[in-house]
Amino acid sequence: MTATPGHDEVAPITDQTHDNSWSANLERDVHAADRDLVVRQAIEAIEHTVPGNHVNLVTHSDHGHPETYLYERLAAEYGDDLDWEYVDQCGCGGYVTRVEVQR
């Protein structure tokens, strides 16, 4: 049996600031086991996206549609500084949300 790594042991979703549109893969095995990690790394991805660009947050299917756990957290964290829209469900089962960083 493989132990789930602690938060401090999980590699960051990105180590660079993206001055372009990009996708954050939040559907690895470690994400399936930890919804809080998905939310934390989604926020990390947004923080690493230069305003005027978007990041596609690809979230793990085990947590269901992101409107049930992610959108409220984004609204609380960023208010009107973001626009997001649900794009589609991937063939692998994950969910894609496009987040436009405004400011």
Q: Any key phrases for this structure?
A:
single chain; 103 residues; alpha+beta; Ribosomal Protein S8, Chain: A, domain 1; four-stranded mixed β-sheet; 3 helices; 4 strands
Structure report:
Strand 3 and strand 4 (95-101) form a beta hairpin. A four-stranded mixed beta sheet has the order 1-2-4-3, with helices on one face. The chain has helices spanning 29-32, 35-47, 71-78; strands at residues 22-26, 54-59, 82-89, 95-101. The protein has three helices and four strands, in the order βααβαββ. The longest helix has 13 residues, at 35-47. The chain starts with 21 loop residues before the first strand and ends with a strand. It has 103 residues and is of the alpha+beta class.
